[in-house]
Every structure is written in structure tokens, then in C-alpha cells.
Specification:
The complex is a heterodimer of chains A (112) and B (113). Chain A has 112 residues and is an all-beta fold. Chain A contains no helices and 11 strands. In chain A, the strands form 2 sheets. In chain A, strands 2, 4, 5, 9, 10 and 11 form a 6-stranded mixed β-sheet that branches. The chains are: A mainly beta (112), B mainly beta (113).
Chain lengths: 112, 113
């Protein structure tokens, strides 16, 4: 079993739809979590951090469920420009070292 | 502030040649990461440094790959000799601390013929 797993998709949705992605992680000691967005042939870019209390940034909402060991990303009122691959990242660390594990990504295509 | 800067953006070279990729992290970031991305294998962590010291190089594929960080503002990833299967996009990323988000450079698109 992979340490971090994402549904690869693709998710094909119409403009204006609401879409949600999940990312499960296997290590219960995981400490910090992020969502990244990667456009074709570009570098991953930080989309948002995921906090225990959940957080929202415009049309995007991220949530953490420690009991079930998953994080989620909800996109409301999806735009054509939201088409991309979304990567989750799970971190474990101590004072001097740690491990940062990226999921393989979920591909979203928003269609007119 | 300037982001992570990688060079070259593109590299095409023949099998057997030495390839050197360069990275300048964001100032003040103590951690530097080298990744490789291909369609087949996704994003793979090759090595990371903390305060210029290599911490985990378990992702380096084989002895042909080496990485150095001589100071806080510069790192290199070297492949010698290069092989066609090394063709990929190589990303450098840096972060303020472990557990903080990483910021990626534009990547180097490497093609070995």
C-alpha cells in the first residue's frame, strides 16, 4: 500500500460544478498537509495548507480527518482554469529531518 | 522575492555525457529538495539537504547521480554518465523548515539521446 494515495481520475466536470478530491495517508504520525496544483509541463504550485480545523480560500475548501487519515479538497463553482492535476502532500518531521510524501495526483478537467 | 531558480530550463545531450543541473533556493530556506518527474513514475524525491547537509539520499537512483550543496544559495545535481532513461523533468524545491510548504523552481527538462 502506498503511503499517500489519491484517485488518479480523471475527473471531467462541467463549468460551475462542485468537485471533491480525497487523499488518504497511511502514517498516523503525519503532521502537516498541503494541496498543490500542477499544470501541464509546469512545476507544482502550492494551492493551500490543510489545517485541523479546516480552511477555506475563495472557492476552495480543504479539510483534514485525522481519525480516518485523509485530507480533502473541495472546489465550488469550478472554472475552466481549474483544469489541472492536484497533488496532496503529507509531512512527518522532527527537529532535524523528516519525510515529505507527494501523492500521484488527481487530474481535473473542467469543460464548458 | 525571487523564487527558486533552476538552470538550464532545457538540456538535450547525448548518452554518456555529463549533465549538471543547478538550483538556487529561496533565501532563508534551510531545506532544499531535488525531484525527478516522469509520466510513468510520477514525482520522485531524489535527495534533500538541511543547512547544506545531505539528509536523505535514498531516492538517488544509482551511483551515476550525485548532488552537492556547497553553500546555502547553490546546489547541483550531476549525472555522469547520462543514459536515455534519465530523461525527465528535474525539479528543485526549497522550504523554510521541514513541515512547511515547499516552493518549486520551473524545472529542467532533460532529454538524453
Amino acid at each position: 500500500r502506498k503511503e499517500v494515495e489519491q484517485d488518479p481520475g480523471p475527473f471531467n466536470v462541467p463549468e460551475g460544478a462542485t468537485v471533491a478530491f480525497n487523499c488518504t495517508y497511511s502514517n498516523s504520525a503525519s503532521q502537516s498537509f498541503f494541496w498543490y496544483r500542477q499544470d501541464c509541463r509546469k512545476e507544482p504550485k502550492l494551492l493551500m495548507s490543510v489545517y485541523s480545523s479546516g480552511n477555506e480560500d475563495g472557492r476552495f475548501t480543504a479539510q483534514l480527518n485525522r481519525a480516518s487519515q485523509y485530507i480533502s479538497l473541495l472546489i465550488r463553482d469550478s472554472k475552466l482554469s481549474d483544469s489541472a492535476t492536484y497533488l496532496c502532500v503529507v509531512n512527518i518531521y522532527n527537529t532535524n529531518a523528516g519525510k515529505s510524501t507527494f501523492g500521484d495526483g488527481t487530474t481535473l478537467t473542467v469543460k464548458p | 522575492d525571487a523564487g527558486v531558480i533552476q538552470s538550464p530550463r532545457h538540456e538535450v545531450t547525448e548518452m554518456g555525457q555529463e549533465v549538471t543541473l543547478r538550483c538556487k533556493p529561496i533565501s532563508g530556506h534551510d531545506y532544499l529538495f531535488w525531484y525527478r518527474q516522469t509520466m510513468m513514475r510520477g514525482l520522485e524525491l531524489l535527495i534533500y539537504f538541511n543547512n547544506n547537509v545531505p539528509i536523505d539520499d535514498s531516492g538517488m537512483p544509482e551511483d551515476r547521480f550525485s548532488a552537492k550543496m556547497p553553500n546555502a544559495s547553490f546546489s547541483t545535481l550531476k549525472i555522469q554518465p547520462s543514459e536515455p532513461r534519465d530523461s525527465a523533468v528535474y525539479f528543485c524545491a526549497s522550504s523554510r523548515d521541514m513541515g512547511w510548504p515547499q516552493h518549486f523552481g520551473d524545472g529542467t527538462r532533460l532529454s538524453i539521446l
